[in-house]
Write a structure and sequence with these properties.
The chain is mainly alpha-helical. 72% of the residues lie in helices and 2% in strands. Strand 2 and strand 3 form a beta hairpin.
Length: 456
C-alpha cells in the first residue's frame, strides 16, 4: 500500500514569508509535545507499581495497561496518517491533546485494572500517537537548511521528559495520591493543545509530498527484514526495563521514592549519550571497535552483572546509567547503520513496517516478563530476557554490517556492491505535474521520517 501524505511544504526554491523567529516557535511547541508525551509514557514503570498496589493484581495483569499505551502510541502514528495529512499538524496535535487528556482524566474513575486498558492504555495512546508524529512533520515542512538543528532541538524534549517526569510524578503521588496525579497529568496532556496552536501551517501551499510509508520495495531487501526484527527485539527488551525497573528495585528493599528516581537516571544517561555520539559524528557510531563494544559487549556486561548491581542502591544507579548510555548509543547506531545498509529512502518507505514491529515489541515485552516474574517469583529472569533481546537486536545489525561490507575502519569507505540511492543526503524533490495541472506532487523522502526510538 502506498500512502500519500498530502501536507503543505516549502521547497528550497520557495520562500516562506514567515520570519525565522516565528518558525522557531514551532520548534518550541514540538519540544514540549515530545517532553509531555515521552515523559508520561516512559513513566509507566512507576504506574506499574501503583496499579499493582491499588488493584491487588499481579505484574502480568497490570503490565497490559502500560504495554497497550506504548503499542497504541506507536501504531496510531501509522494508522491515522491519512487523518494527519488531511487536517494538518495543528489540528492533529490539538485533537491528540484532548483525547489524551480525556483518557488520563477518565482513568481517575476506574474501579478495576481492566478499565485502565481502555482509558490509560487505548485512549491516552491514541491521543499521544496523534500528537507526537505531526509535531515532527510540521518542522519538516517549515525548515530546509536548518532542518537537522530544528529536529534535534525538538527531539531533545524526549530526554528532558524522561528526566523530569519521574520527579514530578513522585511529588504528585505524595500530595495528591494516584487519582489526583492522573488528573494533574491530564492537565499536562491538555497543554498539548497549546503546543498545537503554535504550529501554524506553511503559507502558499502549492505542493504536496508523496510518502510511501508501506511500499513493498523495502520488503524485497533481506537487510530490511533484519532491521525490522532488530527493532522488535530492542523494543521488547527496553520495554521490560522501563516497566519493571522500579519494581525490581523495590523488590531488593529500595525505598519507593528512590526507585522512581532510577527512571530519571536513565533519561540523564541516554540524553548525554545521544549528545556525545551526535557531536562526534558517524565514525563514533560505526567504527568496528565502538560498534562491537557498545552494541554487544556493553549489553552482555549489563545483563550478566545486573543481579549483583541490584543488591545495593548505588549498583542500581550504575545499572540505569549503563543502560541509559547503551540505549542512547543505540539511537545513533541504528540511524547510521540503517543509512549505511539500506539507505534513507528505503527507511522512509518502510517506516510503517518498522513502527509496527516496535509497537508489537512494546505490547509483548511487559506481559511476557510478567509471566516470568509470576512463575519464578524473581525479577532477574525477566531482566535476563530483556538483556538477551537487547543484545540480539544489536547482533543482527552487526552481522548484516560485516556480512555486507566486511570490517570497515570508518564509514567513509564502502565495499561490496553498492546501489545508487534514490535520494542523496541533501534535500531533493521530484516534481510531477498532476493530470489536472492544478498542483504538483513532490516525491520527497529524505528526512521526512526519522527511525523510531525505543528508549525514547
Amino acid at each position: 500500500m502506498i500512502e500519500q501524505v498530502q501536507a503543505s511544504c516549502v521547497t528550497p526554491t520557495m520562500d516562506d514569508p514567515v520570519g525565522d523567529g516565528s518558525r522557531w516557535v514551532i520548534v518550541l511547541g514540538s519540544f514540549f509535545v515530545q517532553f509531555i508525551v515521552c515523559g508520561i509514557t516512559y513513566s509507566l514503570g512507576i504506574f506499574q507499581i501503583v496499579f499493582q498496589d491499588v488493584f491487588s493484581e499481579d505484574h502480568f495483569d497490570t503490565s497490559w495497561a502500560g504495554s497497550i499505551l506504548l503499542y497504541v502510541t506507536a501504531l496510531t502514528s501509522v494508522v491515522l496518517r491519512c487523518f494527519m495529512s488531511k487536517f494538518g499538524s495543528r489540528v492533529c496535535v490539538m485533537l491528540g491533546g484532548l483525547i489524551a487528556a480525556g483518557g488520563l482524566a477518565l482513568s481517575v474513575f476506574v474501579t478495576d485494572v481492566y478499565q485502565l486498558y481502555l482509558t490509560y492504555g487505548l485512549m491516552t495512546g491514541v491521543g499521544f500517537g496523534l500528537a507526537c508524529t505531526p509535531s515532527i512533520m510540521i518542522i519538516e515542512q517549515h525548515f530546509h537548511k536548518q532542518r537537522f538543528r530544528a529536529i534535534s532541538l525538538a527531539v531533545g524534549g524526549v530526554g528532558m521528559g524522561i528526566i523530569a517526569f519521574p520527579f514530578i510524578i513522585k511529588h504528585l503521588l505524595e500530595y495528591y495520591a494516584w487519582r489526583g496525579t492522573l488528573l494533574i497529568l491530564a492537565g499536562f496532556a491538555f497543554n498539548l493543545c497549546v503546543c498545537g496552536a503554535l504550529m501554524f501551517p506553511v503559507h502558499k501551499a502549492k505542493e504536496v509530498r508523496l510518502l510511501p510509508l508501506l511500499s513493498c520495495l523495502p520488503l524485497r531487501n533481506p537487510i530490511f527484514h533484519g532491521l525490522c526484527i532488530s527493532n522488535f527485539f530492542w523494543s521488547f527488551g527496553s520495554t521490560i526495563v522501563y516497566m519493571y525497573l522500579p519494581a525490581y528495585a523495590i523488590h531488593e528493599n529500595t525505598d519507593l521514592e528512590k526507585s522512581f528516581l532510577l527512571v530519571s537516571c536513565i533519561g540523564i544517561a541516554s540524553f548525554t549519550s545521544r549528545s556525545i555520539f551526535a557531536f562526534m559524528g558517524r565514525k563514533s557510531a560505526l567504527d568496528d571497535v565502538t560498534a562491537v563494544l557498545c552494541s554487544v559487549t556493553l549489553g552482555v556486561v549489563l545483563t550478566g552483572v545486573s543481579p549483583m548491581l541490584f543488591e545495593k542502591y548505588a549498583g542500581q544507579i550504575a545499572f540505569t546509567l549503563i543502560f541509559g548510555f547503551y540505549s542512547g548509543y543505540w539511537t545513533t547506531f541504528l540511524s547510521q547503520i540503517s543509512r549505511e545498509l539500506v539507505g534513507p529512502e528505503y527507511i522512509a518507505m518502510g517506516n510503517g513496517y518498522l513502527s509496527f514491529m516496535i509497537a508489537v515489541g512494546s505490547l509483548l515485552g511487559g506481559p511476557c516478563a510478567g509471566i516470568l516474574i509470576r512463575e519464578k517469583k524473581e525479577f532477574q529472569y525477566a531482566f535476563y530476557m530483556a538483556g538477551a533481546s537487547l543484545i540480539w537486536s544489536n547482533v543482527i545489525l552487526l552481522l548484516f554490517k560485516f556480512k555486507r561490507c566486511g570490517p570497515l575502519p570508518s564509514t567513509e569507505g564502502s565495499c561490496g556492491p553498492s546501489k545508487t540511492p534514490l535520494l542523496d543526503d541533501s534535500y531533493q524533490s521530484i516534481k510531477v505535474t498532476s493530470a489536472k495541472g492544478d498542483h504538483v506532487l513532490v516525491f520527497s523522502l529524505q528526512g521526512v521520517q526519522q527511525i523510531p526510538e525505543t528508549t525514547v
